[in-house]
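Section: Multi-chain targets

For targets with more than one molecule, the full set of components is provided together so that the structure can be written out for the assembly as a whole rather than chain by chain. Components appear in the order listed by the source. The example entry contains two components.
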Amino acid sequence: QMGWVHLGACLLLISPVLSLFEDQVGKFDWRQRFVGCPSQVSLDKSRGGRIDNILLASKEQAVAAISLNNGDIAWRRLQESNVTDDISFAATEQLMVTVSDSGRSVRAWEKRKGGLRWSVWLSDTPSTSVSVGATGDLAAVVSGNTIYGIEGSDITTYSWKGVITKSDWSRVSTMASSATGSGSSLLRSELVLVTGINLQKVTLTPIDASGLSSEGSVSISATWFHSERCVISRETLWCLSSTGSLTALPLSTSAKSTTFTAKSGILRPLSISNTVAVVGESETNVYRLTGTEIKKVLSLPFSVDSIEGVAVDGENEKGVIVVAHSIYNLAVYDLEKATQLAKATLHSSPARVPISTLLISSPSSSSPSEFQIVAISSDCRIESLVLDVKQTGEPFIEWTREEALARVSKAEMLDLPLSELQASIESEFEGGDLGIVGAFIRRVTTQAHQVKRWAIQTSHQLMSLSSSLSFGRSGNLAEILGRIRNQDGIRASRSEPFERDFFNTRKLVLLTTLEGVIYGLDNADGRMVWRLNVDEGSTHFSPLKSQLGEETVPVYIQRTAVHPGLNPIATAVYKDKKSLEAVLVSFDPMTGKVMSTRRTPPVKRVDVLPKEIADHLHPLVIVLKSGKVVFEPELPANMKAMPPLHVMDIDPETGALEGMELSIVNGVGSLSKRWTGDLSFEKDEKAIIVQGKPATQRVHSRGRVLLDRNVHYKYINPNLVAIASLDEVRQTLSIHLIDSVSGQIVHTGRVTKVTGPVHLVHCEHWVTYSYWSEKNRRTELGILELYEGDELPESNVFDSFVPTLHQPTAIVASYIFSQGIEAMGVSETEQGATTRSLVMALPFGGLFEVTRRFVDATRPVEFTQEMREEGMVPYMPEIPIATEDMVNYNQSVFNIKTIKAFPSGLESTSLMLAYGLDMFYTRLTPSGTFDILKDDYDTGLITLVLVALFVGSYVCKRIVKRNSIKAAWA
Amino acid sequence: MRLLLVAVFLWATVSADGLYSVEGTVVYPRGDSSLPANTRILLNYGKYVGFPREDGTFSVNGVAPGSYIVQVENVDYVFEPVRVDITASGKMRTRKIITMQPGAVHQLPYPLKLQARESTKYFRKREEWRVTDVLFSPMVLMIALPLGIMLILPKLTANDPELQKEMENMQLPKMDMPDMSDMMANFFGPKTTGTKKITGGKTGNAGQKKKN
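Its structure, encoded as tokens over all components, is:
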């Protein structure tokens, strides 16, 4: 037992390098939280008519409230993320009742704070059709062919359930209390079950706390009813036949259906009672049921993308309709007079995609001409605007949220363009020969430029400093000093031009999303620099499918920003939903401006050619499904022969491998088969992860020095690909390491009695993988390291065709990890000299950083004094998880899918981005910031001491002089 | 009435065909009432999710028989995870998690009672510069203490001639303390040519020889 304590103490000495100080909060990191793309939204009108929140359920299984004032998340609750069905909800005065998990789980949330009031499990059998209605303390849920009633405030189970037999369509509808008019038998109930049989009849059954009241139910023969062409808009059921006859049935037992000959189109419910919109292909009409008559109250000569209405002052007749049409035009109409109140074009909005959902609130009494409108575009952008009908011009945009960022597919961090200063130095060396005089003049002018630039920058800094100081006059000296110190952080960088900083830590984060939007973010503070919807004007975007079946929108950097005078180029690839062609969109990653769009036949694989053609441009290699190889842009015919490229293909079902060689002759590429292999998967085995190594990765030291001063040389094969395959039935995880060029299987390892989730990191000469051990019922972490032997390999460059001196040997160790893992990533530095560290996203929201020294296959089990002197870490079965090691401290992030790190200009610093539903960015310093001053380095104190010493010595000198004169006289 | 509507009343807490609920209470530190709204109960790291009500009680529903790690997700407090085993017949067994010995059974009561262990610490304390740190460091003490004795002792003895005599007789090894002002003058001032007294000089320390 004592031994463990001792070892624990030993580990404690090493670990503090990774943890964080409180004053570093927010200095290098930022977090962004998202709710996901909304699937259902409604305005929360609870508090005395003043709208406060937008309630929403999202495709990412989040239930949330967004503050209407500033767009911040008021609260957010994440339900089971392994479910794919949409959540549906209904709101009451106090509660938001959600149905999730395929209509099986009902939960009621307090609308204001998001606390759970009650949760009820309905049934074990999932169903696809779900409808929910709620009022007061009563909620009714239709799930499949069963209706459940839930009544009360502190409950754990439903009050009653009923079977709905023989119906094609069933919905629960909430009646607004004002609509339950006198004389109606529905008076005592505010919930109605509406069921219908196609072309036969519609049945209305009131719902109350004790169940369905069968006496109150009425059946109406309805030959006009069809489940696919009917909607409930507030208290009325509307059906539109394919021929254009519109039928309305008020949801009260005494009511009769009314039919009207209208234009065909799609029915859209509105939030105004007795009103519905029919959106046709070239026109839009709004109909209203008054008594037993349907009237056309508004007719627009164009089709709309979305339409919504609101009653003003609680009166239906005074309703206002807002429409979005022609992609980004908004218009507001008065229903009473059928006139246009206002129209606006969202010029400032970057989204050139249709608005899919609109919400509008009735104006407050203080400003009766102002309408607050929430527009949700089809690329998941939520925008809140205020439209004043008395004023013309642009509506005022209050806030926007980019929810597409909750579905990021790929991330890259790009170097910013060189600053003017750096560029001038570069160009000084790039220019031709000018002779002595010319060179001298150039030298002087560049330096004059540098001085000028420095002067401008310093004056800017001083200005911002003085303004920030004058802001907080009350602060004491320490506060002011702190403010001065913070000046050289992120804060000042905002006003500076968007260019590279001294240590190249400021980068552009390029993100592609599965919604078709590409973002450029500033990594200093996470603000959006630009956004680009590749799908503008059409709706044909769909992500590519990777070989393992995952959706992906890859992006390739064809030219970086380091070449002054040449625009950087990045290209994203997606699939056209209609034609199945691949679309390549090239854009400037610094500005987000599209440069060109090209189409190719369906692609199998795209990559960047590791060779520049003219103007430092890397062409794209595109392997088409047909097996043809094309280049983008085309290669010059006179291009020098280059060594062939190798492509490996895997069938994730069978494990069949195929190695192909891509040879380029005279600018024409051709693919030829080089080798075939087979991992011979079992029947239920499937490849789940295929991971190569980044081409730019560097390994600083080739060997590991052993205790006896011998060197163990690492097997560093840049062509090595790690394949993880999982057999869910036999519970076996296999790790295969394959040389993708020669087809040699370097290593195969098997772990039995394990299941997913499996995560894998492949880096340098090692592979780390995590899995769930079914035998021990805990997460375990495996590490596999490859070594070539004790002799120095002859060549410095690895060649897959030259056999290594010895067959590489694998050293394997495994560790207990007492938490689940959602995603795993590894730090990446410029030279690879810094000890790497692994970052894992834990299910409770932490991002845990652990140094590779802990996750090491060579940690000795028997620990000697010598090893301690060498600073080795003894083997301990468990990787300690301390909350101090969370790089995101209390900034929890959830449902993280990927963690990716990028090198910065500082060897010690790696820039890490974790994304999924939330996003977190920080700097990792796995070995501490050994190459720059610590950020708590007290410049102020040192300056103070130096000045004091200087002054002191001068004073001393004077005193001594006087004394010596005195002494001489004495 | 062709459409048949049947209302069935149900009072059972456990669903019938093989899915069960895990129930329990989250016990928060006293006085922190805002917590339930940002707490979740995770079974096997999010396979099933439950939410505590205002009073801390929770039930995770629709759980298939098996063995689960029950964990409380809260940003401010650390909770000890527990393991819950559900048999096919719906029997519950709760035990402590000992990662090193997954087989060990250390039974806990059911329904679960999950207590906050401590508030979560995310930060290390930054080392602050304090005057006391410097004063009490061994190096400073080693220098300051003898210095103090050297300075204070003569002062103490100055009033007592007898003691002074005694001290002189003690024949302490006399140190050649350089004259501070002299040193300073040599460092910063012009070459001093004035008369200088050489203090001590009995041991003939080389560093003390000054050009006169």
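The CA atoms of residues 506 and 524 of chain A lie 6 Å apart.
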